[in-house]
Write a structure and sequence with these properties.
Blueprint: H1 5-19, H2 24-31, H3 35-43, H4 50-59, H5 64-74, H6 78-81
Helix pairs in contact: 1-3, 1-5
Length: 93
């Protein structure tokens, strides 16, 4: 099972968008974010910024805390978040 928070967030974002019956283009128009950025978020290749989460949540008729709760509930530990050794003191750039 994939516990990468970027992928989990992207899957959740796509689910919420589709629940509203919106295309990615509609979401980008409503949120003001670039279509390529939203696409990257949904594919799990973009590390979405907190300010953009706070922008997306109300756009999708939610709040940022509830927007993240399904993701945080599926991530059991820090070692699941990042594919780096547990003893790493810094993260690669």
């Amino acid at each position: 099972m994939n516990y990468d928070p970027r992928k989990l967030f992207g899957q959740h974002l796509a689910r919420l968008r589709k629940t509203l019956g919106w295309s990615q283009e509609k979401l980008t128009l409503e949120s003001g974010l670039a279509r390529s950025y939203v696409s990257g978020i949904e594919r799990g290749v973009r590390n979405v910024a907190l300010c953009n989460i706070c922008l997306l949540a109300p756009t999708l008729q939610g709040d940022a805390g509830l927007f993240l709760s399904p993701i945080s509930a599926r991530i059991a530990c820090r070692s699941c978040w990042f594919p780096y050794p547990d003893n790493a003191t810094t993260f690669p750039a």
